[in-house]
Every structure is written in C-alpha cells, then in structure tokens.
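Exercise: predict the fold of this chain.
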Amino acid sequence: MLKVNNLKVSIGEVQILRGVDIEVPSGELHAIMGPNGSGKSTFCHALMGNPDYSQSGVVTVGETDISKLTQYERSAAGVFQSFQYPVGLPGVTLKEYINEINPELNDEEILELSKKFNVSNFLDRDVNVDLSGGEKKRSELFQLAVKKPKVALLDEIDSGLDIDAIKSVSSLINENRNEETSYILVTHYSRILKYLEVDRVHIVVQGNVVKSGDQELIEEVDSNGYTQYQE
C-alpha cells in the first residue's frame, strides 16, 4: 500500500503541493485529475524523489518510509514511474534494459511477455528510439510488467495518443493489473478513464486534493469542468 501524508512540494520559493493526503491500497487504481498547473505531475515526480523539488511530509510503501530516499533507492524500494514523454536510450536495446530490470527472466519468458504488449519487434531496437507515442507507452507498460513494482506512477500515459492507442493502452493496464501493486494514473482529460477500471478519483486544484470519490467524479468533471472546484 502507498500512503502519502501531508506532502508539501516546492521549487525554490514557489509552493506547488500544499499538503496532500492519499492512500492507495495494493491492487487499486486511483486517478489524479485536475487542470493544467495544478500539481498533478509534480505529485508523481515528488513520489519518485526528483531532486529538483523540495518536499516535506511522509511517504510510505508498505512499512517502508521512503520520504528521505534518493530516486535510485525509491526505485529499489518498489516505486516505478512511467513518464509523459519517455526518453530514448540510444545504444541500449530494450532486451538489454529488460535484463537489467529483471535478470531472473530468461529469453523465452521475455519474448512471451513482450508479445502480450505487442513490443516483441522492439526487443533488439534501442529503447524508445524512433517509436510512435503509442509504441513508447506500450513499451513503458511492458517495463512495468517486468518490474512488478509495489507502486506504479503513470504520468499522463494518454498524452499524445489517438483514440485507438488510448483504448489499446487502457486494455493493457486493465489486463495486467497486479494485486501487489498500488497504481496512480495522472491525467488532464477524462477520456482514458472511461476505458479503465478506476477504483477512486482525486481532484487536485492549486496544489490541494479538493475532492475524492468514485467514478461519478469523472462525469462531474465532464459536465462542469474544473472551475467548479476553484475558489
């Protein structure tokens, strides 16, 4: 389980998150929604330990307090982040990268798992190099399945995708949910959430969680936007 208690995050003198409290039980998928600049992606970056941010509060994964850990240490503790704009790794093939993530998998297991995510053709290609947006996102989800983290942070995984790619990515998320993993998906738009089995929705406005609830909140946002939550 992921527990976030009174998380405050700043860059320099600018405070972005003002005291966020969220709990995501293992096996659940929670959506973080909000307008641009509300602090959604900052929340993911802070949980991953991005050193550009100053932060206070307590973040625990299971019984482990990761609040003071570095990015590498948080990754080792079971935190995984899928980025809005995945970067390429020239000179490192996807298969080589997967071997580093989980050296216990043999070649046959890697191939079979890659077929589930339709990325088997990319195994001998450099990570995320010359791939479309949808292909990059499928590759990220393949890496997530290999890693089997305790916490999965999906930062705007729908960004730049057309409707067919969104449906494909959503199906992969639904079909490969792990009961040992807490999932957080950050999105500005509600369209991907219509294809996902979301357990809880949190609305973030101006660095605060202003409302939490079930999927009815998605319809509420669709009907009235985010201005209804702003003072």
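Check your answer against the key: The chain is about 30% helix and 30% strand.
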